[in-house]
Design brief:
The protein is an all-alpha fold. It has helices spanning about 1-10, 15-30, 30-45, 45-60, 65-75. Helix 2 runs antiparallel to helix 3 (about 30-45) and helix 3 (about 30-45) runs antiparallel to helix 4. The longest helix has 14 residues, at about 15-30.
């Protein structure tokens, strides 16, 4: 699940943007309506789009809103 990917990172698991994208695409197989907007945002290359879609996911799935603060505090796209 996507929430597990976010929480794993929050808990200190090493983050790799490419691996995150690949894991989102694995989720796409089971949950295309949920994963596609996040994958599209990752493809677009804009950090604010990725954060928007991740926050939307948290809200729509009814997860703890405190996770939104974490989403905003880190970069999800590769830093150049």
């Amino acid at each position: 699940m996507i929430i597990d990917l976010i929480l794993d990172r929050k808990d200190g698991k090493e983050y790799n943007a490419k691996r995150f994208y690949n894991d989102i695409m694995i989720c796409y197989c089971s949950f295309p309506d949920i994963a596609l907007p996040i994958a599209d945002a990752l493809d677009s290359g804009k950090e604010e789009d990725v954060k928007r879609e991740l926050k939307k996911y948290i809200k729509e799935q009814g997860y703890n809103s405190n996770i939104v603060e974490y989403i905003n505090s880190v970069d999800w796209l590769p830093v150049e």
